[in-house]
Design brief:
Blueprint (H helix, E strand, L loop, with lengths): L1 E6 L2 E4 L4 E9 L6 E7 L6 E6 L6 E3 L7 E6 L4 E6 L8 E8 L12 E2 L3 E6 L1
Parallel strand pairs: 2-11
Antiparallel strand pairs: 1-3, 3-8, 4-5, 4-9, 5-6, 7-8, 9-10, 9-11
């Protein structure tokens, strides 16, 4: 079992930056792939980024590539999402997710989820 708690969301103007954190507790965090997803009102949950358990491989949605960076600190059991050049269309609840085996972009592949943190980007 892995418990995930996101933080770092808030209100920011377009063009600004935020860094989200996801603190994990439970066993063997270092062996889990970690992903970030987001869900805007009335829309389906969509993939943002994923990082493998060593941090050596990352993958991003086209919509955030070049603006967002996912990273992890296994010593701190934490994964981060640095978000730069934010746009109003980035407004959503952001969730982190983890899984022991899956490293893809489908939310159905992830076993564990946090409660989410709201990100609002004003124009």
């Amino acid at each position: 079992q892995v418990q995930l708690v996101e933080s770092g969301g808030g209100l920011v103007q377009a063009g600004g930056s935020l860094r989200l954190s996801c603190a994990a507790s439970g066993r063997a965090f270092t062996f889990y792939a970690m992903g970030w997803f987001r869900q805007a009102p009335g829309k389906e949950r969509e993939f943002v980024a994923v990082i493998n358990w060593t941090g050596s491989n990352t993958y991003y949605a086209d919509s955030v590539k070049g603006r967002f960076t996912i990273s992890r600190d296994n010593a701190e059991n934490t994964v981060y999402l640095q978000m730069n050049s934010l746009k109003p269309e980035d407004t959503a609840v952001y969730y982190c997710a983890s899984d022991l085996k899956y490293t893809g972009s489908s939310p159905n592949g992830y076993a564990f989820w946090g409660q989410g943190t709201q990100v609002t980007v004003s124009s």
